[in-house]
Amino acid sequence: MANPLQLKSLNHISIVCASVEKSVDFYVNVLGFSPIKRPSSLDFNGAWLFNYGIGIHLLQSENPEGMPKTAPINPKDNHISFQCESIAAVEKRLQQVKIEYVKNRVEESGTYVDQLFFHDPDGMMIEICNCDNIPVVPLTEDKVWSCSRFNCNIQITSSRFNK
After folding, report:
1. How far is it, in rounded angstroms, from Cα 93 to Cα 85?
2. Whether 91 is catalytic
């Protein structure tokens, strides 16, 4: 596979917030991230969080009142997605903390992916899913990737490789 930029993984996403404090509370207490140290040379309000092998950098908006209002939950809108072990446990937790969400189910050849969509305090959409149920199948290769949170296994599916 080509890797012209020598990329290794997703490092972090940055999210502009109306209130860094409210967003930290959400990402820590709802999604399970942990605050980590930011470089002292950063001279603006923000917070860095880490878990699940990725970072979230929260940046205080310079104009919190001018930030877009939260739109209705739309699974076809921009979002970040996290895989989970139990959709039922996530749904129960969202109900406990009174977060509005939308459920969706995707089917591919008898395999199902369950999804829950909801917003963070600033309207960033979050998806929680069991997406590792569906293999990653490149469109131009004769390989099938089976990815979990721990690793990716590549299976050769073309007979030309199975001789």
Report:
1. 13
2. no
